[in-house]
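hey so i finaly got around to running the thing on Cytochrome P450 2J6-like from Saccoglossus kowalevskii. pasting the sequence first so u can double check i didnt mess up the copy paste, my clipboard has been acting weird all day
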Amino acid sequence: LINAEYNDVWKEERRFTLMALRKCGMGSLRMEEKILREIKYMMADIDERINQPIDLLHLLSQTPANVVSTIVFGKRFEHEDPMFLKLLDLQFVFTTKVNRLGASNLFPALRFVPGMKYSNELHSTVDNAAQIFRKYIEDHRKKFDSNSEPQCFIDMAISHIETLGDRTTMTYDSLSYTLWDLFSAGTETISMTLSWAILYMMLNPKIQYKLQAEIDDVVGASRPVSTTDRP
Ligand code: HEM
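ok and heres what it spat out for the 3d tokens, dont ask me to read them lol
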């Protein structure tokens, strides 16, 4: 979706992706359960490192990446899983490089300046990730049962491709790239937003106290914050 040409294939992938994400509970309270579960793992990691330096950006990437993985693969990764770390690493390399190109979106002439164009290096980062996702697609294809209701995004996509056959433009190859789009769309956006928020709170302790006071007042200390707490 992000790294694809705008054509009929793109349109079908987008339609399918939005429908499948909705079916997987995106934007609903079911999603909140998944998020809260991952936050518990994150808090446990933070608790283990009290009084030690901590790379929050890394932790804030693992948490949303696992929320997305639960939807996409129907499972979460252990934080030390080498494949998970590899995907996060590729994602970090990709966004660091692609962010530099932001200015050429606004001023297209900049693409003629060396280093300001979507390079082969960026293509190969995405290809490496898609390669990893192809392995997961294969695993899911082996276990796929057309008689049972698909539980995660990959299984829904397999069902779509197998059921429609020639009548769909979606392929297992295009799926591997869509999985990367979802993984990176759901990881870097959240980790950057949260790390900026934390950084601002560190620089503005008064705001931090105000936020904490509101949480104490509305939610208390005995349960996590929920979207149902919104006024
Ligand atoms: C703070 C977090 C996030 C930010 C700032 C953000 C930002 C954006 C933006 C700016 C767009 C483009 C909208 C448009 O031009 O129509 C977009 C689209 C999209 N985002 Fe996010 N996003 C975030 C989180 C997520 C998460 C967690 C996912 C889940 C995987 C996700 C999946 C998508 C998808 C699938 C689209 C395409 C929607 C469409 O084509 O209608 N995003 N996002």
